[in-house]
Amino acid sequence: MRTEGRAPVCAIILPCYNEEAVLPATLSAMDGLLRDMVREGLVAPESFALYVDDGSTDATWSLIAAARTEKGRPRVRGLKLAGNAGHQNALLAGMEMAAEAADCAVTIDADLQDDIAAIPEMIRHFQAGSHVVYGVRADRKADSWFKRTSASLFYALMRLLGAPLVPGHADFRLVSRFALKALEDYPERDLFLRSVFPAMRLRSSAVRYALKAREAGQTKYTLLKMVSFAVRGIALHSSAPLRLSGCLGLFSFFLAVLLTCSTLMAWSAGSVIPGWTSLALIILYLGAIQLFCLAVLGEYVAKIFTEVKGRPRYIAEEKLE
Predict the structure, then answer these.
(1) HSE-up (13 A, CA, CB side) for residue 46
(2) Strands 104-107 and 10-16
(3) CATH topology of domain 10-220+312-320
(4) Element housing 138 (H / E)
(5) pTM for the structure as a whole
(6) 131: helix, strand or coil
């Protein structure tokens, strides 16, 4: 989406949760990037970095507030959420705040493992007509073997279940104001942004980059959080697990019919049916399938419960504009 005759106003949105260790380096890097892009004429001087504090319990907000008033940093803005609303909601809060002031918005995690050198290329793609520009991790050597493998399995599973995901893409992306406005038409309380934007089917492109090592602090994505994130993404954008539950039930029924026929044939032939081992295994097998199906059903019912309540996704406690 071209901004005819002028450079676009760009908002760089950085969700922060207990990032006091890495934030000083991030603030400096963002200052330098925006200054360089303004000097090259890629973005307008009104462009800014918006730091969204997602209920941090350390000095994250104090550092953002101090940077906002520091001389030489006029491009710093801040948004403090009342509590930990979650990574996706923090991104959404930043995008909603930036929608009125910016022609485009770039979302990137505050640890800057995603390469900020890809942002100027994203701006060029935007100027060439893309509404969404995906940052795709072409090189993940900075991640552990487990994280690389689990991420590959996650994307493969999501594609198998029919969820629209861009392989190798996390939440590093540029979106136009048009796409931000289109996002307002998605009323779900629980949004999974990695599949929402591909589902819009707007004109898009991709920029590939190498993932960098975290400079300071610890990752906030533990194994439990990664599993929860994957389950959430599947439940929000694919009904395939519900169909799988039905298929397992049908398979169990046919298996029971076959076992019944086999037992009757053995009885009619006068064979003695041995002990309880086979019976116990069958009971355990069927019980496991039933519990799995109940768990899948419960996950979807929980999502319905969240949507029906209609509570706000987040509460903004303070803004620095």
Answers:
(1) 12
(2) parallel
(3) Spore Coat Polysaccharide Biosynthesis Protein SpsA; Chain A (3.90.550)
(4) strand 132-139
(5) 0.75
(6) coil
